[in-house]
Amino acid sequence: MVRPPSSCLEDKFDVTLTREADIAVLVGWLQRVNWSPSRVGVAGTGLEAIGQITLTTKDGATHSFELWDRGVILPGGGRRWTWETDTARLAEIVKQAGAKAP
To answer: Taking the CB of residue 56, how many other CB atoms lie within 10 A of it?
Structure first.
């Protein structure tokens, strides 16, 4: 389920990307996140995920990322780590891939 912040996307979208070009754009968006340790934050208990991205590779491995209104959340080590990024761009990506609100 992908739901960027209400400021850039007000509807929920359930999108499955299968075209290589669409997947490449999404992976490119993830690669543009500044994953630097100096940019990481720790999500407080009140930070609620508003969406999720799950990537499944050809060999069946899965990688999941939660979304909040300003970025990406990754669980690890008993914490939820946050990185701010351009979620408006994510909204554009899912719409260009043909996403429709349910």
So the answer is: 11
In a domain, 84, yes or no: yes
For residue 3, is it within any domain? no
In sequence order, the 6+-apart residues with CB closer than 8 A to the CB of 92 are none
| Side-chain half-sphere exposure of 38, counting CA atoms within 13 A | 0
Whose CA is closest to 69, among 13, 11, 19, 5? 5
Per the structure, the complete domain to which residue 28 belongs is given by 20-96
The residue among 94, 98, 30, 17 whose CA lies nearest residue 56 is 17
Q: What is the pLDDT of residues 61-81, one digit of tens each?
A: 998 888 888 889 888 888 889
Chain centroid to Cα 9, Å, comes to 13
Overall pTM surpassing 0.85 (yes/no): no
Amino acid at 5: P
Total domains in the fold of the chain: 1
